[in-house]
Design brief:
604 residues; alpha+beta; 4 domains; six-stranded antiparallel sheet; 15 helices; 35% helix
Length: 604
C-alpha cells in the first residue's frame, strides 16, 4: 500500500480542519516570532562572534528547517505564500555560508570551527536531515530547486565523508533522522546514491567498531546502537531518536523488500504499543533521559511523553501500514492524533508543551516546582510555554499539522484504504473520494467514491458496535467493500471505562474514561481541589455535555467524593458523598491556568 499524500487532500470541517487552520493562521507565526526573538533565523548569516549574545546552538539548523517544512506544506495547501521571500533569504544565506564541498552547519561554522564530523552527539547529521526534508517540501511548494540543489551537494559531501573516505570520527549519527530524510530524497529524485547512504547509516548502526561508548558517557542503548538494527526486538533509549530510526527501517524494508528489517520493525512496534505506550499514545516515560524504560513503567505525574515522540510514533505507525494494512498500526496512529500530539499545543495555538504528563498534583508555586526539580524530583511546567531552549516540538507541530492529510488514506492497484476519518475531499486524478463526517464528535462516516477499486475502511479497536448495511468482508481490522460508489458506516461512539494492565502499577485500582478515540481527564478547575478523592462509579452513567472549551463534547460522570480530611492521619472513614465528575478531552488540559489534573481516576 502507498499513502495518498496530503497535497491530494482538502479538509473541509471538523476538529482537524480547525487545528490545521489554527496552525496556518496562528501557530506558524507564533513560532516564527519566537525564533526571530531568539536569533535562530539571524544565525543563518553565520556572523556570530564569541562574546556576543544569542550564541547559536548545535540544533538551531533543525528548528528552522522544520519551520520551513511546515510553511512549505501550508503553501501547498494554498496558505502563507507571503513567507516565500523570507524563506528565500534563508536559502540565500545557506548558499553564501556553506563550504566549498557543500557542507553547511551554523554551529560548526561559527562556534566550533575545525571540528566538523568530530562530535557524534552534536546533531550535525540530524540537522542535515531536517534541512533535506525542508528543501524537498519547498521545491514541491514553489517549484524552486535552489534549496534542493544545495542539499544535493550536502548529501554528496556526507556520502564522501562517511562512505568513500570514512574520515569522520564516528560512523553513524548520535541522533537519528537523516536516514528517513535520505529515503525521502531518494524517492523524490530517484538518485540511488541517496538510498545507498541511508542504507549505510542503517546497516552500520550497532554494527561497527568506530561507534563505541565514549567520553560523553552516552550509553549505546540510549541511541539504539547496542546491536545491529535487524537484531533489535525491544524499543530502548531516547524515544524520538528511536522512532525516527524505526521509521527509516520501515521505509527500507518496504523499498528493498527486506524481510529481516520488517521483522525487526514489527517486533519493535509491538513492544511499544503493547508494553511502553501511554493511553494517550505518548511514549518515552523516563523524564531524566526522554527514554523508553522497562515494560509497563508508565508513571503519570512524572510522564515525559514528549510531543515530538508522539509525532515520531505516528510516523512509524504510518510507515508500518505501508508494509501491512493492519488496523493495529492505524489504531495507534489514531490514538496519537487525538491525544498525545494535540495536547502539545494550547487551544489558542501559540503556546506549547514539551512534555505531556497524565496527572498534575495540586500546584503550590513555580518556585516550589523549581526546588523539586533541583532536588531530583521531576515537576513539569503547568502551563504551556511560548518557546523552550530546546524548541524542537513547536516547529514539529507546524509541519505535522500542515501535512496531517498524509494519514487519512492509502491505495494499491485494487483497493483504496480509509485509515483515519476526517471530513475531506481527496483528488485521485481520474478518481475522486469524498469523506463526510464530524468524527470524533460522532461516528457517522459517509464515503463517496468514483473509481473502479474496492474500498477498505478501518474498524476502530475501541468500537463495540458497527452499523453498516452494505455487504463486506473483514480482514486485519478493515472492512472491504466491493463495487460500491457510496457507502455509510456508523461506529457507535459512547463513553466507556478503560483499565490498564495489572503490571502498570501507577494505574492500579483506577480507570480512565474514553469516548471514541479521545481520552478524557478531570481538572480541579471543574471539580474542586483534591481530585484524588474522586471516585467514578462503575455502574453509574456517563453523559455527554456541550463544552465551552473545545468543539468536542465534555463528559459528566456519576461519581462520589470522599470527605476532605485535614488531619495528617486519622481513622479511615468510608463515607462517600455523591457528586458529578466533569471530564474534558485530555488534549485541552492546562488551558485555564495551573490546576490539578488526572487521567486515571479511582473507581468504585
Amino acid at each position: 500500500m502507498k499513502k495518498i499524500g496530503f497535497d491530494k487532500v482538502k479538509l473541509n470541517s471538523g476538529l482537524w480542519k480547525t487545528l490545521q487552520t489554527r496552525n496556518e493562521e496562528t501557530t506558524i507565526y507564533a513560532v516564527k516570532d519566537r525564533f526571530e526573538e531568539t536569533g535562530r533565523f539571524k544565525a543563518f548569516s553565520c556572523d556570530w562572534r564569541e562574546g556576543e549574545d544569542k550564541k547559536p546552538h548545535f540544533f538551531w539548523d533543525s528548528d528552522v528547517a522544520k519551520w520551513i517544512e511546515g510553511v512549505a506544506y501550508s503553501m501547498i495547501n494554498g496558505k502563507n505564500r507571503e513567507q516565500e521571500a523570507f524563506i528565500d533569504s534563508i536559502v540565500d544565506m545557506i548558499e553564501t555560508n556553506r563550504y566549498d564541498d557543500g557542507y553547511f552547519n551554523i554551529y560548526y561554522t561559527v562556534c566550533e570551527k575545525g571540528k566538523r564530523w568530530t562530535e557524534r552527539y552534536n546533531h550535525e547529521l540530524y540537522c542535515a536531515g531536517h534541512l533535506i526534508e525542508a528543501a524537498i517540501a519547498y521545491k514541491k511548494a514553489t517549484g524552486k530547486d535552489k534549496f534542493l540543489k544545495l542539499m544535493f551537494d550536502y548529501a554528496d559531501c556526507i556520502y564522501k565523508t562517511f562512505v568513500t573516505e570514512n574520515s569522520a570520527s564516528f560512523m553513524t549519527p548520535g541522533h537519528e533522522e537523516i536516514e528517513l530524510a535520505l529515503v525521502k530524497l531518494y524517492e523524490e529524485t530517484g538518485e540511488p546514491r541517496h538510498l545507498e547512504l541511508a542504507e549505510f547509516f542503517i546497516d552500520k548502526r550497532g554494527n561497527n567498531d568506530k561507534d563505541l561508548e565514549d567520553e560523553c558517557g552516552v550509553n549505546c542503548l540510549y541511541i539504539q546502537a547496542h546491536k545491529p538494527v535487524r537484531e533489535q526486538r525491544e524499543a530502548v533509549g531516547h524515544a524520538v531518536r528511536a522512532c525516527y530510526l524505526y521509521s527509516a527501517m520501515a521505509d527500507l524494508a518496504r523499498i528493498n523488500n527486506d524481510a529481516a528489517l520488517r521483522t525487526a520493525c514489527e517486533s519493535l512496534f509491538d513492544d511499544i504499543s503493547k508494553r511502553k505506550m501511554y493511553i494517550t499514545g505518548g511514549i518515552g516515560s523516563g523524564f531524566s533521559t526522554e527514554c523508553f524504560t522497562v515494560p509497563y513503567d508508565l508513571p503519570n505525574n512524572e510522564a515525559y511523553a514528549e510531543t515530538c515522540a508522539a509525532i515520531s510514533l505516528a510516523m512509524f505507525g504510518q510507515r508500518m501500514l505501508e508494509l501491512d494494512v493492519d488496523s493495529k498500526y492505524s489504531d495507534v496512529v489514531e490514538k496519537v492524533l487525538y491525544n498525545g500530539i494535540i495536547s502539545g499545543l494550547s487551544l489558542g495555538g501559540d503556546a506549547f508543551f514539551y512534555e505531556n504528563p497524565l496527572a498534575y498534583d495540586k500546584p503550590v508555586s513555580a518556585e516550589y516546582d523549581r526546588q523539586m526539580n533541583a532536588g531530583g524530583r521531576h515537576r513539569t511546567i503547568r502551563e504551556r510555554a511560548k518557546i523552550f531552549g530546546c524548541s524542537c516540538c513547536p516547529p514539529n507541530i507546524n509541519r505535522f499539522f500542515a501535512a496531517v492529510g498524509d494519514y487519512i488514506c492509502g491505495c494499491d492497484e485494487e483497493t483504496v484504504y480509509i485509515h483515519q476519518f476526517m471530513d475531506c475531499d481527496i483528488n485521485l486524478g481520474d478518481e475522486s473520494l469524498k469523506i463526510e463526517t464530524q468524527y470524533p464528535r460522532d461516528g457517522k462516516i459517509k464515503i463517496t467514491y468514483s473509481g473502479g477499486r474496492r474500498i477498505a475502511v478501518r474498524c476502530p479497536e475501541w468500537c463495540r458496535k458497527i452499523i453498516c448495511h452494505v455487504p463486506h468482508t473483514t480482514r486485519k481490522g478493515y472492512m472491504y467493500f466491493e463495487n460500491t460508489d457510496c457507502l455509510e458506516v456508523e461506529f457507535e461512539i459512547r463513553p466507556r471505562l478503560v483499565r490498564a494492565a495489572s503490571a502498570v502499577i501507577a494505574d492500579s485500582g483506577c480507570t480512565a474514561v474514553m469516548c471514541g478515540p479521545v481520552v478524557y481527564c478531570a481538572e480541579a478547575v471543574d471539580n474542586g481541589d483534591n481530585i484524588g478523592d474522586l471516585y467514578i462509579l462503575k455502574d453509574g452513567k456517563i453523559n455527554t455535555v456541550e463544552s465551552t472549551l473545545t468543539e468536542l463534547c465534555d463528559l459528566e460522570a456519576d461519581g462520589a467524593r470522599m470527605a476532605e480530611q485535614r488531619e495528617l492521619y486519622a481513622d479511615y472513614m468510608a463515607e462517600l458523598e455523591p457528586c458529578k465528575i466533569r471530564l474534558i478531552p485530555y488534549y485541552a488540559f492546562a488551558n485555564r491556568g495551573a490546576s490539578e489534573m488526572r487521567v486515571w481516576l479511582n473507581i468504585r
